[in-house]
Structure formats: C-alpha cells, structure tokens
UniProtKB/TrEMBL annotation:
<comment type="similarity">
    <text>Belongs to the glycosyl hydrolase 10 (cellulase F) family.</text>
</comment>
<feature type="signal peptide">
    <location>
        <begin position="1"/>
        <end position="25"/>
    </location>
</feature>
<dbReference type="InterPro" id="IPR008979">
    <property type="entry name" value="Galactose-bd-like_sf"/>
</dbReference>
<protein>
    <recommendedName>
        <fullName>Beta-xylanase</fullName>
        <ecNumber>3.2.1.8</ecNumber>
    </recommendedName>
</protein>
<dbReference type="InterPro" id="IPR006311">
    <property type="entry name" value="TAT_signal"/>
</dbReference>
<dbReference type="Pfam" id="PF00553">
    <property type="entry name" value="CBM_2"/>
</dbReference>
<feature type="compositionally biased region" description="Low complexity">
    <location>
        <begin position="540"/>
        <end position="568"/>
    </location>
</feature>
<keyword id="KW-0326">Glycosidase</keyword>
<dbReference type="InterPro" id="IPR001919">
    <property type="entry name" value="CBD2"/>
</dbReference>
<feature type="domain" description="GH10">
    <location>
        <begin position="197"/>
        <end position="529"/>
    </location>
</feature>
<keyword id="KW-0119">Carbohydrate metabolism</keyword>
<feature type="region of interest" description="Disordered">
    <location>
        <begin position="531"/>
        <end position="568"/>
    </location>
</feature>
<dbReference type="InterPro" id="IPR008965">
    <property type="entry name" value="CBM2/CBM3_carb-bd_dom_sf"/>
</dbReference>
<dbReference type="Pfam" id="PF00331">
    <property type="entry name" value="Glyco_hydro_10"/>
</dbReference>
<keyword id="KW-0378">Hydrolase</keyword>
<keyword id="KW-0732">Signal</keyword>
<keyword id="KW-0677">Repeat</keyword>
C-alpha cells in the first residue's frame, strides 16, 4: 500500500504555468520573425518527501534492509529516513514513481544523503530502476558522490524516461560497503518548457536545394517535444548508439534489436532516411569478439584471423539484412585511420588480428546483403592534413582493389575556434578526385576550446561565435552541395549531447537548439545570419544529465586536436563610431585591434549592415559590399595587422530609414568583440 504523500502533484499550477508561457509566446511573436523562447517557468514539484509526518512517505527497502523514520538527524525539520541493516551496497531506500513520471519529460531528482553517525566516509549515488516484461535496467542519475556522517550531501540530476515500463523507481545506493545512511528532502520536479517553435523555418526546407539534413538520435528524441522538433526540421536520422556492436550483439549469437528497431521504425513511419552507424569500430565492441571461447585473446595466426572474420561476416550479414532497404547508408567502418602510424592504419584489435582484411570483409558482405546501400568509411579530424591524406590513400587503395567503398564520412566534431574554413574546404576538395560521395556525419560545435574551460551557462559571446561558425561551415557545405550527399548533426538539441561527458564532464551546448529546444543563434547562422545577434540569450543551463543513451562505454579522448589554441576567443576588438550624420549620409570610423596572439597579414574585415546602409567611399583600405555584407581589405601600407596592432579605416556612407551600427564583425572570419 502506498504511504501518504506530504504534497500532492501540483497539477493546476503546472497548467497555469504552461498557459502563461503560451500567452507570452503569442504576444511576442508579432515583434520579430522568431518567437523568443519563453524561459523556464518555476519547477513543478511532482513528488516530495521530508518525512516530517513521521511516515516513510512511500520509501521502502530494495532488499532485506530496514527503512524507518529517524529523528537522530534531519536536513531541515526534525525527521529523516534511516536505512540500516544493509548487507549489500545496492540496498537502499527506493520510491516508486511509475504514476509520477511520464515518458519524454525531463525531470530533476534531488535528495540529501548523510551517513549515520560513526560511519566512515564513502560514496553514494542516485539511480532509476526501470522494469519491463520481467527484466530490469538501471540508469544512473547522479554518479558516485562523496558522503560523510558529518554533513548532508545533495545529489541532484536530471532524467528523461525514454522507454515503456511497467515499473519505475528511484533509489539511493552506495558505491561499496553497507553503511547505515540517512536520506532527506527528496524532490522530483520538472520545468514546463516552452512549446516547439512553429514560426521559424524548417531547416530541411531551408536546405532543400542543398542536401538532406540529419540528426543523431536515441529513444528520447522519439517522444514528446523532441520528436516534434526532429520531424519538423530534419530529413534523416542516425541512431547514435543503437546499431553499434555492443548494442546489437552483446554476446555471441544473441542479437538485440529493441532500440534499433524502435529508432529505424520511427524513421520509416515519419519519412526520415536512416544512416546506419556503425558496423565495425574499435570502440563499443564487446570483448568476446576478440577472444577465443576460452577467453584467450585472438592473435594474427590464421585460425584466429579466420574466426574473427567469420564473426565479422555473421555480424554484418545479420545487422544489415535485418534493415534491408530501410537503411540507405552504412558507416561500414569507423575511425580506422591513425595518422601517427607511417601507414596511417589504426592499430585496433581488428587490424592487429586481420590487417586490412576486416575492411575488405565488412564492405564485401555489406554490399552483398544490401546492394543498393551506400557504404562509407567514417572518421574524425579528417580536416587535419596528415589524417586526411592517409584516409584518402586508404580509400584510393581499397577502391583500386575493388572493395566497394562508396563514400567518406567526415565526423566534424569541431569547436568555436577550430578548424578554419580553409582547412575544412581542403578536406572536402581532397576526396573529389577519388570520385567518392562525401557526407558530414556527426557535426557539433563545442563552445569550449580546451579541456580546462567549464561554464555553468553558455556565455552569449560563445553562442554568437558558434553561430558564425555554423554560418561559415554551412556556407562551405552549400558550395560543395554537389559533393555532399547529406549533413548530419550529432544530436538534436543541447539537452542531450555526448559532449556533456566528453572529453570531460561539463555542460556543453554544441547544437542548433538549446536545452529547451528553442532555436539558438547557431540555428540562425544557417537559416538567416542577419538574425544571429537578434536571437535572445540562452535558456538557463541544466545540470548535465546521465541518460540511458549515454551510459555506453566512454569514447576515448583524442578528438580535440593538440593544435587547438588554448587562448580565449578575444581575437579582435572593433570600435565602430559614426562621427557625423546628416539626412541620407554619414561618416564613420572603424577601428580594429588585433587582440589575438597571431599577426593577420593581408587581413579581411567583415560586417553586416542592418538598415540597408551603403558604403560610398572608404579610406585606408579597399571595400566591397554585397547586400548588407561589407568586406574591407587593407591598403598596401597597413597590410599586416600584428598581434596587439590597430588599424583604423573611415568611410562615407548613405542611409535612409535608420542608421544603427552594423553587426557580425569578423577579422579573417574570426568574430570580433565590439566596443
Ligand atoms: C558517441 C555517443 O554519442 C555516446 O552516447 C556514446 O557514449 C559514445 O559514442 N564518434 C562516433 C560516435 O563515431 O559513434 C560517437 O558517439 C561520437 C564520436
């Protein structure tokens, strides 16, 4: 029987909050083209337990331990819940939440934990148990956190239920040991989010003449608002984890299709194409693949090699044939290049045991089973010249041998500062002579430029810089639309990105929609760059969540190139001053200071007018104007702009309706700080 709750679900305030949000959206929609995100309403508390009424308020033991109200210590008030008599670390207080949580909503769970008096310090965590069809799965909400008997520790995390379940509970356990512990002030809440914007252009329509646009997904992108956003903006999806070896064949011969079937099925039902990712990789591949039945690691001897290739053939045949023509593109192999090897080939277990034969086998079998699917080699950092060239050599060699490699996938996990557009262009150009297709397969633009940075909320200037990066890279992709058969982003929105845990745990914001699924400046960078600066500042950031889709094996560090500069983004500073203005005309000066560490020889300064102004005559440089975009290049005497140096240009311009200062100043395509 369920014990009484101290507080009932606040349904009415929730509805009122949502109604208020809807009103805000409707009123503001008339001003700009875009509806500014209606920002986070107060959290709605769905379930709370303070134990102040002397009952356990629905908390129960998970195993044979004892759960009872205690007045020995309390976090606020006089009561807490004491758990004693534990005989295993997984035992602890649990509360059933099946009636409280709905699929697709992002909840915050919070609980205070304190070890009982006299216990030595330890670690506790907060998790969710999901039960369905007689089996259970466990998702961590807050990982192991130090706890002591001297003070209360708060465990707070977010969780989205992405599966159908017939049982659901939250519980506290310890990393090890069986210490008695107290919990108090458990809260389950959610923040009503603004509706998915319907008054902004769909990305897939904006890019319809260029290439299909895709997003990596997990189950949680297939429900609720995420699903609405996904189907509104995207043409294709890539299951982010569900088709990897550890998901599809965790133990030899027993294939698991639940998530992959769900994701491919959703795509087919909604008219989305699917990229299959990935058949062969050195990550997320179970250990059994590379060991003998008695646990001995396989070697390069012929019998072991034959066994490995046999397993590979079975895997590729089974996975590819299950989806047939529902999957039109496969990343047959992922990340096989290591530019630090003279031959460019990654020394993975695949390579060590079979040389290049694993690639030959995988492509051959995939072609045999899915003759019309496009077969890709996919890799990261393909813009890095050494890696690019080694990948190109390998693709050339394999194709010359008759191995059916149809395309090259560029992951494009990049950041706000790296790589340059020129280097990215060289990446695309490099593969044109081979006559292969190319796709951008996993793009995201981290707001961080090194591993030491961490922002609780993405700073506005980073989001702006990011928007210009999206603008510039998509401009490039559009120029190469004949080569690129699709562009895919590694995620749908900032509420769920692998970069929250890679390369270090911190909140990142690398995608086009924010944590509340609202369009970011980055979205406008692709859709209409003149609106980048008009986009409202971001939603408050939420604690990085650990969700089912992120509990796979951690991706190795290494994507962040060693050449990534560690300086900030303050590369240039611009002061724009209208020195004189009269009806129809004005005079202005633009002062650029190179605040970066590198000189800019033959620099190019760019800005965008907002009110239709025109430059009539400019001194100290040359000017080109293309619509609202103005590009200034130096005169011979100021062609170099050294680090710390300043250049000033002046011009006469015309204006009519208004003469607001321009936006989007960049120096050699790097965004400048204005002021
Ligand atoms: C990532 C997933 O997004 C994570 O959820 C998972 O924990 C690790 O893998 N390059 C790839 C993708 O090819 O498969 C990786 O996906 C991201 C980097």
């Amino acid at each position: 029987m369920r014990a009484p709750r101290t507080r009932r679900r606040r349904t009415l305030p929730a509805l009122l909050a949502l109604a208020a949000l809807a009103t805000t959206a409707a009123v503001t929609a008339v001003v700009p083209l875009t509806t500014p995100p209606a920002h986070a309403a107060d959290p709605v508390v769905v379930r709370e337990a303070t134990f102040e009424d002397g009952t356990t308020q629905g908390f129960r033991a998970r195993g044979g331990e004892t759960v009872a109200v205690s007045t020995a210590t309390a976090h606020g008030g006089t009561h807490s819940l004491l758990v004693s008599g534990r005989t295993a670390s997984w035992q602890g207080p649990a509360v059933d939440l099946l009636d409280e949580m709905t699929k697709g909503t992002r909840y915050t769970l919070s609980v205070r934990v304190r070890l009982a008096a006299g216990q030595s310090p330890g670690q506790a965590r907060l998790s969710v148990q999901r039960d369905a069809d007689g089996s259970s799965a466990y998702d961590q909400v807050v990982g192991d956190t130090a706890v002591t008997a001297d003070a209360w520790t708060q465990l707070t995390g977010t969780y989205v239920l992405a599966h159908d379940v017939d049982g659901l509970s939250a519980y506290v356990e310890t990393a090890s040991g069986t210490a008695d512990l107290h919990i108090d002030d458990f809260v389950l809440s959610y923040r009503p989010t603004p509706p998915v914007q319907t008054d902004i252009p769909a990305l897939r329509e904006v890019l319809a003449d260029d290439f299909p646009i895709g997003a990596a997904v997990g189950n949680r992108q297939l429900v609720g608002d995420q699903a609405t956003l996904l189907t509104r903006h995207f043409d294709t999806v890539t299951p982010g984890n569900a088709l990897k070896w550890d998901a599809t064949q965790p133990t030899e011969g027993s294939f698991r299709w639940t998530d992959a079937d769900t994701q491919v099925g959703f795509a087919v039902d909604h008219g989305l194409a699917v990229r299959g990712h990935t058949l062969v990789w050195h990550q997320q591949t179970p250990a059994w693949v590379f060991t003998d039945t008695d646990g001995t690691p396989l070697t390069a001897d012929p019998a072991d090699k034959a066994l490995l290739l046999d397993r590979l053939e079975t895997h590729v045949r089974t996975v590819v044939s299950r989806y047939g023509d529902r999957i039109g593109v496969w990343d047959v192999a992922n990340e096989v290049i290591d530019e630090n090897q003279a031959d460019g080939l990654r020394r993975s277990r695949w390579y060590e045991i079979s040389g290049l034969d694993y690639l030959r086998t995988a492509f051959r079998v995939a072609r045999e089973v899915a003759p019309t699917a496009k077969l890709y080699l996919n890799d990261y950092n393909t813009n890095v010249p050494a890696k690019r060239d080694k990948l190109r050599n390998l693709v050339g060699q394999l194709r010359a041998e008759g191995v059916p490699v149809d395309g090259v996938g560029h992951q494009m996990h990049v950041n706000v500062q790296w790589p340059s557009v020129a280097e990215t262009e060289a990446m695309l150009q490099a593969f044109v002579p081979l006559g292969v297709e190319q796709q951008i397969t996993e793009m995201d633009v981290s707001i961080y430029t090194n591993e030491a940075e961490s922002f609780p909320t993405p700073p506005a200037d980073r989001l702006r810089t990011q928007a210009y990066r999206y603008r510039d890279l998509f401009d490039l992709y559009r120029r190469y639309a004949d080569e690129l058969t699709s562009v895919t982003l590694w995620g749908l929105a900032d509420d769920d990105t692998w970069l929250d845990t890679f390369p270090v745990a911190r909140k990142d914001a690398p995608l086009l929609f924010d944590t509340e699924l609202q369009a970011k400046p980055a979205y406008w960078g692709i859709v209409d760059p003149t609106r980048i600066d008009a986009t409202p500042s971001p939603s408050p950031t939420v604690t990085p969540s650990v969700t089912p889709s992120q509990t796979g094996s951690p991706y190795p560090t290494g994507n962040t190139p060693s050449s990534t500069p560690t300086s900030g983004l303050d590369t240039c500073r611009v002061t724009y001053t209208v020195t004189n203005q009269w009806p129809g005309g004005f005079q202005a000066t633009v002062r650029i200071t190179n605040t970066g560490v590198q000189a800019h020889p033959g620099w190019s300064l760019r800005w965008f007018f907002r009110d239709g102004q025109r430059v009539a005559q400019l001194w100290n440089g040359s000017v080109r104007q293309d619509g609202d975009m103005v590009t200034v290049t130096p005169a011979s005497w100021n062609a170099n702009l050294p680090a710390g140096g300043t250049v000033e240009v002046g011009f006469l311009g015309s204006w009519s309706s208004a003469n607001n200062p321009p936006i989007g100043f960049t120096l050699d395509r790097l965004p400048c700080v204005v002021g």
